[in-house]
Structure formats: C-alpha cells, structure tokens
Amino acid sequence: MMHAAEGTLLEMLDGRLPRLHYAQLQAHVAECASCAAELDRLRRLSVTFHGAMAVLDPPAPTRAAYAAVRSRRRGGWMTDTRRTLARAAMLVLGVVGVASATLPGS
Fold it and tell me: Taking the CA of residue 80 as centre, how many other CA atoms within 13 Å lie in the half-sphere pointing to its CB?
C-alpha cells in the first residue's frame, strides 16, 4: 500500500472515513512509521487548532448570564435613583440654609 494522503489521514481523524477504508488505513498506519508520524503530527495540529479556536471564539452567554445582567440593571437603577434624589434633597436643603442665613433679619 502507498503512503496515505494527508486528506485521507484528516478524514480518519475527523471520523469521516468509511469503515472499510478506516480498517485498511489503521492497519497501514500500524505498519508504516512515516504514516504513523504524519498522523501523530496532524493529531497534534488538530488539538492546537481547536484550542486556539476555543480562545478566539468563546461560548455565547447563557440565559443565566443574561438574567443576572438584567437583575443588576434593574436593582442598580433603583439604587442609583434613590441615591441621586437623596443628594439632590441635601443640596437643596444646603442652598436654602445658606440663603436663609445670608438674608438680613432671618
């Protein structure tokens, strides 16, 4: 048997090779050091490629993540509004206090 083509070895790694051809290729790879080395090289490249793709393409956020963001936005908005209103009230009281202290006869 001739050496296996790179495409055939890739099909074997991907599980897309028909069973008959898979068995023949597996027997050949067991006997041929060159094809075994090439298959090992392609396997390592495949693992490296999948690892790189996992880093570049992270999984999409789940429903739980979206729900957590929505709940934080809702709770944060109310808390921020109350805090802003309290600060505005203190500012108004401060301005009124200063204004009443500066008026003559107060």
Answer: 6
Burial of 10 (0-12, 13-18, 19+ CB in 10 A): middle
How many of the other CB atoms lie within 10 Å of CB of 24? Answer: 14
CA 83, 89, 92, 94 torsion-angle sign: negative
For 1-106, strand residue ranges (E) read none
Q: For residue 28, which of 36, 37, 18, 20 has the smallest C-alpha distance?
A: 36
81: its two tokens: 């509004």
Joined tokens for residue 36? 């075994």
0.90 exceeded by the pTM?
no
Judge contact between 90 and 96, C-beta under 8 A. no
pLDDT tens column, 23-46: 999 999 999 999 999 999 999 999
pLDDT tens for each residue of 50-62: 988 888 877 777 8
